[in-house]
Amino acid sequence: MTVVSPDTIFSLQDNGLEAAALELFRYQYRENDLYRAYTDALRIAPASVKSILEIPYLPIQFFKSHTVVSGTFEPELLFESSGTTQTINSRHLVKESAIYTRSFMTAFEQFYGPVDDYVILGLLPSYLERQHSSLVRMVQEMVTRSDHPESGFYLYEHDKLYHQLRALEARGQRVLLIGVTFGLLDFAEQYTLDLRHTIVMETGGMKGRREEWTRQEVHAFLQERLGASVIHAEYGMTELLSQAYSKGNGLFATPPWMKILLRDENDPFQLSTGKGAGVINVIDLANIHSCAFIATEDIGRIHANGLFEVLGRLDNSALRGCSLMVS
């Protein structure tokens, strides 16, 4: 049995996901010992799975307690989640770095156009100070590919960032300012701007660094202080190799090889792809060599137009860097 190829995955149209997902499910059942044991424990026969609603979704906590791999390989990358000294971090072994790069570059350019149109400014304090961050890896590659000398990272150099943004705005240069939430809030508390050519994109991440705000509060504050008409957002996590993007109002869209489903909080095997609220399950076909079917601990809502929003976290979830709580 052969694995679904990256070429197939990243050229999918929206209506091709289910067939590819079922093929990848069968491969991962065969090649991923943990996933096979989990599927068998649920007494699910792979031959009986005919729909993405019938695929078993691996609880995300297994990335903290087990090695989640399909096949045997030496990983080119190791991604590790952010956390506190009291938490156990998730670990994601990535067989081929090129798959991760292709996933995030293809998705970004589908939503925003060529990355070299932008100066990329990364505001990622604490993430830059630790190893194995998938977010830092992504932004670093975007900085490199943007091929603008002004592109780069800012740790706590808020004054330098402020003057750089003013200079770029003055000449009408398109900019992507991508930052963890607490970093953007810290910056916006110190400076006001009138950003007309800059996309401000938050990636989540309070990490206990400051009082939790709702997403609406965060976006309203950043809009007021930075002069941005909307705040964009990225939805990703250590356990996934793909990202969803929001161009405003916290409503996210996925690339064609990624899909959001909702499970009933009281019956985790009751799944839906339609309008409603529940706990988020993710299909990420870029996770060829780990597990493409993940049951997260994020609460979400799918809207009639197919976009989704993240409402918060399950009450018993560990504090994680990607959380943005709502009241």
Automatic annotation (TrEMBL):
Q: Signal peptide location in the record?
A: none
In alphabetical order, the GO MF annotations are: long-chain fatty acid--protein ligase activity; transferase activity
Keyword Magnesium carried by entry: no
Single GO BP term? bioluminescence
Q: Where is the Acyl-protein synthetase LuxE domain?
A: 18-326
Sorted alphabetically, the keyword list is:
Transferase
| Protein's UniProt name | Acyl transferase
Q: Which organism is it from?
A: Chitinophaga eiseniae
